[in-house]
Amino acid sequence: MKFFRLNFWLLLLISSFILVSCGDDDNEPDQVAQTNPTPDVPSDADAVVAAIEVIAALPPGTPTIPGVPDIALDVANANFFSAGLNSSLVNVGTVSLNGKQLQNLSGNTYINNPQDIDTGISTGQKNTWEVAGANGFAAFTHTTSKVMPAQVKFAASVGDTFSTGGSITLTVQSVPANADNILWVLSDGTRVVTKESKTTSVTFSASEVGTLRATSTGLVQAAAYNTEGQTFGGKKIYFINETVDSKVVTLN
Predict the structure, then answer these.
(1) CA dihedral of residues 79, 84, 85, 88 (deg, nearest 10)
(2) Which candidate, 246, 207, 229, places its Cα nearest to that of 1?
(3) 116/186 Cα distance (integer angstroms)
(4) Rounded Cα gap, residues 175 and 29, in angstroms
(5) Rounded CA separation 122/74 (Å)
(6) Which of 47, 81, 110, 232 shows the smallest number of beta carbons within 10 Å?
């Protein structure tokens, strides 16, 4: 089966206000470019909707709040295609996740309000999507048969600094329950290297790491996900449930 990687606005809140880290000799903040770790979806998709729970570690040097070591946020995203995957997006009326209405942004991308980081997404739960329907899409309400994966978490061995001169190994504490697979991401903010492996550890080869530039605002991510497909009014809708651990790192 042919697949296509769909681009989601995954880390909406983080990328919209831009996490910053200030160097000792630089008063200007460095922008942290975020990636969108979303799984491949089959090419027969007419729409893809995603419920994502993100844990993002604060960049080194960022002022912290006692008892709040990480940023936790929910991201809800929905895209409905005019003529199949990779075609233009269409307006399908009101779209809601777990009773909370998403915004229809310019270009007909649906996403939750960036000021609302709690959309009722929790690990171990099923998610309910409601779509009013329009432009060839029938109205439907669907509660996912699969539940949100447990929160994926990096192991303590995943530090804050990595060398681009050799291979890089990323490790999570365990394979989260209810995950179909894990998508691993290594990025310098411009270039992105990914692997999919339902294991507790993956290694990016020296040749893969060598494509990345040195930066103080690199990124490592692990995304545990599951996917299910349903058909409504002749349209194939894919539902993604995902948890993400995200960490800003230095690549040198």
Answers:
(1) -60
(2) 229
(3) 28
(4) 35
(5) 9
(6) 232
pTM over the 0.70 mark: yes
- 100-101 sheet: strands from edge to edge: 100-101, 95-97, 128-131, 140-143
d(CA 158, CA 68): 19
C-alpha span between 130 and 95 (Å, rounded):
6
Residue ranges of domains in the chain:
3-251
Handedness of CA 84, 89, 95, 100 (dihedral sign): positive
Q: Using CA atoms, how far apart are residues 96 and 75, in angstroms rounded to an integer? A: 12
**Under 8 Å between Cβ of 170 and 159:** no
Q: How far is CA 250 from CA 17, 32, 63, 237, in A?
A: 20, 11, 17, 38
Closest of 170, 181, 183 to residue 223, by C-alpha: 183
Question: For the segment 69-106, what is each residue's pLDDT rounded down to a tens digit?
Answer: 567 788 899 999 999 998 999 999 999 999 999 999 88
List, for residues 51-65, the tens digit of each pLDDT value.
Answer: 999 887 765 555 555
DSSP string of 193-249, one letter each residue: EEEE-SSSEEEE-HHHHTTSPPEEEEEEEEEEEEEEEEEETTEEEEEEEEEEEEEEE
Q: Look-up: residue for tokens 């990687």? A: 5
Distance, in Å, from the CA atom of 242 to the CA atom of 151, rounded to the nearest integer, reads: 9
Cα-based distances in Å from 172 to 53, 111, 121: 16, 28, 22
